[in-house]
Amino acid sequence: MVFAWIVVIVVALVVLYLALAVKVVKQYEQAVLFRLGRVVGVKGAGLKVIVPVIDILHRVSLRIVTMPIQSQGIITRDNVSVDVSAVAYYRVVDAEKSVVAIENVQSAINQIAQTTLRKVVGRHTLDETLSETDRINVDIREILDVATVEWGVVVTLVELKDIQLPESMKRAMARQAEAEREKRAKIIAAEGEALAADALGAAADIMMAHPLALQLRNLQSLVEIGVDKNTTVVFPAPLMSTIGELGSFLAREAASAIPNQEGAE
């Protein structure tokens, strides 16, 4: 009976030892091995056997981490208060440095990213912040890379996510945009008037060279008026003078025809 209990205890100790000694490192991880508090190496993916109590295996993920940068109240170079939030992507490239050089790498990157965002955006005006986000993103990433290289971390991408403007600034920008659209509309209308004036001038030159063309245009206008079945017809002044001249011509011809008839009799 005692022997059986001894066997059970030995088996339990073996199972406990194996549970503490056998570790699995995933494909996307590296493990930093500490032996009596000293780093003895970095282990890759697979099954690892350590000495319990003496060895400690610290796993580090090598995958890209998405880290939101909370909204920051920032005053731009032209003294406009804006709230800017962003998102950063980073990954660990040196597992040993990320464990030994800094206590909490994610918290450290988050804090330095906030201060860098405030510093970089504060160097730009509001218009530059809204229109040159790509350059601002690159500036923030380069500054973070310099600061995090000693931690074994590489910042792969930084993007401004949201820029909140004060309501007064939104209204001012809306008025500015409306004024800009009205300016463009007036310029386009003026250009159209200039082109129309040039075309009318060319048409007037042609009609002066060919007076009959003006009469034909007047007759065409009368035809267009008649299409709508209007009861009122407006005769252009040049057409009325032409009709009057035609009537005078017919009257002169009739007067000259009467003496000729009397002489024949």
Characterize this entry briefly.
This protein is of the alpha+beta class. It is built from eight helices and eight strands, in the order αβββββββααααβααα.
List the helices and strands and how they pair.
Blueprint: H1 2-21, E1 22-25, E2 29-35, E3 38-43, E4 46-49, E5 55-61, E6 65-75, E7 81-92, H2 95-100, H3 105-122, H4 126-131, H5 133-148, E8 153-164, H6 167-209, H7 211-227, H8 237-264
Antiparallel strand pairs: 1-4, 2-3, 2-5, 6-7, 7-8
Percent range of helical residues: 55-70%
In one word, what is the shape?
rod-shaped
Q: Could you tell me the mean pLDDT?
A: 80
Strand content bin: 15-25%
Radius of gyration: 46 Å
Q: Tell me the strand order in the biggest sheet.
A: 3-2-5
Number of helices: 8
Largest sheet: 3 strands, antiparallel
Number of strands: 8
Structural class: alpha+beta
How would you characterize this protein structure?
The protein is of the alpha+beta class. It has helices at 2-21, 95-100, 105-122, 126-131, 133-148, 167-209, 211-227, 237-264; strands spanning 22-25, 29-35, 38-43, 46-49, 55-61, 65-75, 81-92, 153-164. The strands form three sheets. It has a three-stranded antiparallel beta sheet. Strands 6-7-8 form a three-stranded antiparallel beta sheet. Strands 1-4 form a two-stranded antiparallel sheet. A hairpin with a 5-residue loop joins β6 (65-75) and β7 (81-92). α3 crosses α5. The radius of gyration is 46 Å and the shape is rod-shaped. The protein starts with a helix and ends with a helix. The mean pLDDT is 80.
